[in-house]
C-alpha cells in the first residue's frame, strides 16, 4: 500500500449528501477481477452523458459539462471535499479503488459510512471527518478561489488552508500508523499467530459445533 | 456494573486481544464468499504465498451477476452470455478449486443469494461472527450472530488470518412494541425505522432489534429487518435468540445434531441482552402506527406511508436535505404533492436478499392469486432467493399462481436488486421493488426505484400503480 504522509493538492467538490458507492462506481464495473483501472469510471453516471460499459475507451464518451470534476479548474485534484454520509451503501472496495485510481489521496467530509471509511485506509486513501460548519466554510473558500489547495499532514493531523490556518483532525492511532508506513495489516496480524491459535483452541473447546461442519 | 448487551456478549466471546490504541483483534467463525468481491482477495493471497487459515469456515456461492433466465442458466457457466460476468464466475470456481473450498455450483439446488443460503443451510448459526464482502451480511444477525459486510482487503485478511481488526461499535436498541397491522410486514418496519433515524442514524452502531413485534416476527421477517440495518447506517443488526431462532436452525444441513445440538442450544440460550444492559441509544416505534411504506426518492430514508404524498422539498428546513430532495424529485420525475397511490409503474421486482424467502413469496402470491398483472406493466418478475426456496415454492404451487397472474418465475440470484446481470430497468422506468436500495442507477441507468414489501409490490403489479395492501381483498 502507498504510504500517506503529507498531501498538498488541488481540492475538488462533490457537493451532495449521502453519496453512495453505486454513484462512486456503478455496478457494471464490479465485474472486473482486477484491483486497478477503475479511475476512468469514477462517478460514471454523473461524469458522462451516456451509459458506461466495462472495457470501453472513455476518452471518446460524451462528458457532462455540468459535472464539477469535468471543469478544467478541478483537473488534477487530489483532495475531494464532500458532504454528510459519504460512501454509504454497498461494501464494494471498488469505490476507494476508483477514487485512488483517479488520483484522489484524501476525502474531507462531515461524516462517512462505516464500511467505506474503513476500506479507504486499506488503499492509501485518507478520509478526514471535520465539523459540518467547517466543511461548509471550506466549500465556500474553494468555490471562491480557483486553484484552491489544501495541505493535509497526517503526521501532525492537520489540514492547512492557503491562509495558513491549521485545522486539527482525529484519526485512529493504528490506522494512522499503517497509513504513514504504508503497512500491509495481514502481515502485522500474522505476527500474532500464536495468540490467534491459542484463542482458536479454547473457542473450539467451548463451541465445537463451529468447527469442521463445512467440508 | 450493568449487564451486557447481546452485541457486548458476541464481541467478548470473539475477542482475541484488545490493544491500547482502541483497536481489537476479533475471531471470525464464518466467511461467505461470492464472485464479485473475492477475486482480488484470492489474488492477493496467492501473490503473498498464503493459504486460507480454515477452509471449514468458508462457504462460497455465485449470486451477483449470474443470469436468472432458465434457458441461459441450464446451459451452465460456460454459456453465461456476458463474457465479463462469465469470467468472474469462472474465477470463483477456479479459486475455490485451487484452495479446496466448499462452493455451491451455479445450478446446485443449494445455490442462491449468499444471505439466503447461509441461514438456510445452517452455515450461519447463533453466536457466530459472520463476514462477507457484501454490506447486506447484516442479515445473518437475525440468528443472534454478529454479522457485517467487509471490503475486499478484509476478505483477504479473514482468509489469511481468520480475524479482523475492529473497533467496538456503540450499542443501539430499536424497540418496536405492540403489534403490526395486518398487511404490514418486516420490510415496512425496516423502512419506517430508516425513515425515522435516517440513513446515517445507525453509523458507528450495532443495532439490536427488540420489542413485542420482533418477538412475534418469523425468522424470515427478522432477516429482512437485519438486512436493512446497513440502510440505516449500521454495519450490524441483530435479534436475540429465542425459540423461533432455535426452531429455525434445527435440522439444517450444517447445524449441529445429536448431543452436540443440546450443548449448542444451551449456549445459544445466553444470547440476549441482560435485563439491566445499557444501550448508548434507544429508538422506539409503536407497531400499530406503522403503515405500509413506499420510498419516493433516491435514498431509503426518503420514505412515506402509502397513504401519504411525495413531499415538497421546500418543507425541509435543512439546506442539504432540501437540495437532496429537490435533486431526487428531478431524478425520479415526480412532482411534490403527488399522492403515492398515483405513481404509475413500469416494472415490478420481487426478490433480493431482503425479500426473496418463502414467506415473502407466499405473501406476494396471496395478493396476486386469481388476478392478472395490469396491462400497463412491462414486466413483473419473481426471483426466488435460492434453489431451495424455488423448490419449496413450486411444491406449494406458488410458481403457478405467479405465472397464471402474468409474472415471470426466475432462477435464483441477486438479479434486478443491483442489475449486474441482464435484469434491469430502462431509463425513466418506475419500479416497485422489494430490494433494499433506491440509489440513482442502482437497478439500471436512469431507473427509478420505489422500495416496498412483497405484498405491496404484488398489489402494485395488479393495479399498475401503488395501492394500500391493507385494503386488498383476496379473490
From TrEMBL, chain A:
Alphabetic keyword roster: Amino-acid biosynthesis, Branched-chain amino acid biosynthesis, Leucine biosynthesis, Lyase
Range of residues in the leader sequence: none
Database matches in SUPFAM superfamilies: LeuD/IlvD-like
Pfam families xref list: Aconitase_C
GO cellular component: 3-isopropylmalate dehydratase complex
Enzyme class, broadest EC rank: lyase
Transmembrane found in the keyword field: no
CDD domains according to UniProt: IPMI_Swivel
Protein origin, superkingdom: Bacteria
Family affiliation: Belongs to the LeuD family. LeuD type 1 subfamily.
Protein name, UniProt field: 3-isopropylmalate dehydratase small subunit
Automatic annotation (TrEMBL), chain B:
Signal peptide, first to last residue: none
InterPro entries recorded: 3-IsopropMal_deHydase_lsu, Acnase/IPM_dHydase_lsu_aba_1/3, Acoase/IPM_deHydtase_lsu_aba, Aconitase_4Fe-4S_BS, Aconitase_4Fe-4S_dom, IPM_dehydratase_rel_enz, IPMI_cat
Enzyme class: lyase
Coiled coil: none
GO MF, any single term: 4 iron, 4 sulfur cluster binding
Cofactor comment: Binds 1 [4Fe-4S] cluster per subunit.
Domain called Aconitase/3-isopropylmalate dehydratase large subunit alpha/beta/alpha: residue spans: 8-464
Its EC number(s): 4.2.1.33
Pathway terms, separated by semicolons: Amino-acid biosynthesis; L-leucine biosynthesis; L-leucine from 3-methyl-2-oxobutanoate: step 2/4
Protein name: 3-isopropylmalate dehydratase large subunit
Organism: Mangrovimicrobium sediminis
Amino acid at each position: 500500500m502507498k504510504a500517506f504522509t503529507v498531501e498538498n493538492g488541488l481540492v475538488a467538490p462533490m457537493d451532495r449528501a449521502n453519496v453512495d458507492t453505486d454513484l462512486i462506481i456503478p455496478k457494471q464495473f464490479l465485474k472486473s477481477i482486477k484491483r486497478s483501472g477503475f479511475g476512468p469510471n469514477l462517478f460514471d453516471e454523473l461524469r458522462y452523458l451516456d451509459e458506461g460499459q466495462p472495457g470501453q475507451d472513455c476518452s471518446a464518451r460524451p462528458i457532462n459539462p455540468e459535472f464539477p470534476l469535468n471543469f478544467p479548474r478541478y483537473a488534477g485534484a487530489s483532495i475531494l471535499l464532500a458532504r454528510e454520509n459519504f460512501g454509504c451503501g454497498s461494501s464494494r472496495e471498488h469505490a476507494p479503488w476508483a477514487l485512488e485510481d483517479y488520483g484522489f489521496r484524501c476525502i474531507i467530509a462531515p461524516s462517512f459510512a462505516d464500511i467505506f471509511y474503513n476500506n479507504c485506509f486499506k488503499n492509501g486513501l485518507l478520509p478526514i471527518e471535520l465539523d459540518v460548519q467547517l466543511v461548509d466554510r471550506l466549500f465556500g473558500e474553494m468555490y471562491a478561489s480557483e486553484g484552491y489547495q489544501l495541505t493535509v499532514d497526517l503526521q501532525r493531523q492537520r489540514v492547512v488552508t492557503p491562509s495558513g490556518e491549521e485545522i486539527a483532525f482525529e484519526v485512529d492511532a493504528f490506522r494512522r500508523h499503517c497509513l504513514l508506513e504504508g503497512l500491509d495489516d495481514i502481515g502485522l496480524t500474522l505476527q500474532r499467530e500464536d495468540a490467534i491459535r491459542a484463542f482458536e483452541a479454547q473457542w473450539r473447546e467451548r463451541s465445537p459445533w463451529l468447527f469442521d461442519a463445512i467440508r | 456494573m450493568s449487564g451486557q448487551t447481546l452485541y457486548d456478549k458476541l464481541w467478548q466471546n470473539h475477542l482475541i486481544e484488545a490493544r491500547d490504541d482502541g483497536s481489537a483483534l476479533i475471531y471470525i467463525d464464518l466467511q461467505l464468499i461470492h464472485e464479485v468481491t473475492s477475486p482480488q482477495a484470492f489474488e492477493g493471497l496467492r501473490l503473498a504465498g498464503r493459504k486460507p487459515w480454515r477452509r471449514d469456515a468458508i462457504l462460497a456461492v455465485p449470486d451477483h451477476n449470474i443470469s436468472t433466465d432458465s434457458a441461459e442458466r441450464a446451459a451452465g457457466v460456460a454459456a453465461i452470455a456476458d463474457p465479463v460476468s462469465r469470467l468472474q464466475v469462472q474465477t470463483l470456481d477456479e479459486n475455490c478449486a485451487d484452495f479446496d473450498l466448499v462452493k455451491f455450483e451455479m445450478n446446485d439446488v443449494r445455490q442462491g443469494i449468499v444471505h439466503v443460503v447461509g441461514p438456510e443451510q445452517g452455515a450461519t448459526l447463533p453466536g457466530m461472527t459472520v463476514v462477507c464482502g457484501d454490506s447486506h451480511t447484516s442479515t445473518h444477525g437475525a440468528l443472534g450472530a454478529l454479522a457485517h459486510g467487509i471490503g475486499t482487503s478484509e476478505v483477504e485478511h479473514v482468509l489469511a488470518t481468520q480475524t479482523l481488526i475492529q473497533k467496538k461499535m456503540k450499542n443501539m436498541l430499536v424497540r418496536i412494541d405492540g403489534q403490526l397491522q395486518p398487511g404490514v410486514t418486516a420490510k415496512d418496519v425496516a423502512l419506517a425505522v430508516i425513515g425515522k433515524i435516517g440513513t446515517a442514524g445507525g453509523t458507528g452502531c450495532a443495532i439490536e432489534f427488540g420489542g413485542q413485534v420482533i418477538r412475534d416476527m418469523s425468522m424470515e421477517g427478522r432477516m429482512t429487518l437485519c438486512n436493512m440495518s446497513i440502510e440505516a447506517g449500521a454495519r450490524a443488526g441483530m435479534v436475540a435468540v429465542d425459540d423461533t431462532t432455535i426452531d429455525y436452525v434445527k435440522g439444517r444441513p450444517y447445524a449441529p445434531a445429536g448431543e452436540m445440538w443440546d450443548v449448542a442450544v444451551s449456549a445459544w440460550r445466553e444470547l440476549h441482552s441482560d435485563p439491566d444492559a445499557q444501550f448508548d441509544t434507544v429508538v422506539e416505534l409503536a407497531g400499530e402506527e406503522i403503515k405500509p411504506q413506499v420510498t419516493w426518492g433516491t435514498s431509503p430514508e426518503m420514505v412515506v406511508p402509502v397513504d401519504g404524498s411525495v413531499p415538497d422539498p421546500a418543507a425541509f428546513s435543512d439546506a442539504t436535505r432540501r437540495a437532496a430532495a429537490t435533486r431526487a424529485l428531478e431524478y425520479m420525475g415526480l412532482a411534490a404533492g403527488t399522492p403515492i397511490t398515483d405513481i404509475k409503474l413500469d416494472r415490478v421486482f420481487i426478490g433480493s436478499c431482503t425479500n426473496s424467502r418463502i414467506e415473502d413469496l407466499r405473501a406476494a402470491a396471496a395478493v396476486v392469486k386469481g388476478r392478472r398483472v395490469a396491462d400497463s406493466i412491462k414486466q413483473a418478475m419473481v426471483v426466488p432467493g435460492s434453489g431451495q426456496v424455488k423448490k419449496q415454492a413450486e411444491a406449494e404451487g406458488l410458481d403457478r399462481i405467479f405465472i397464471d397472474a402474468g409474472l415471470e418465475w426466475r432462477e435464483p440470484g441477486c438479479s434486478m436488486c443491483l442489475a449486474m446481470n441482464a435484469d434491469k430497468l430502462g431509463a425513466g422506468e418506475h419500479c416497485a421493488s422489494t430490494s433494499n436500495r433506491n440509489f440513482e442507477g442502482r437497478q439500471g441507468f436512469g431507473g427509478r426505484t420505489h422500495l416496498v414489501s412483497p405484498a405491496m409490490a404484488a398489489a402494485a403489479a395488479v393495479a399498475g400503480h401503488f395501492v394500500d395492501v391493507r385494503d386488498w381483498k383476496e379473490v
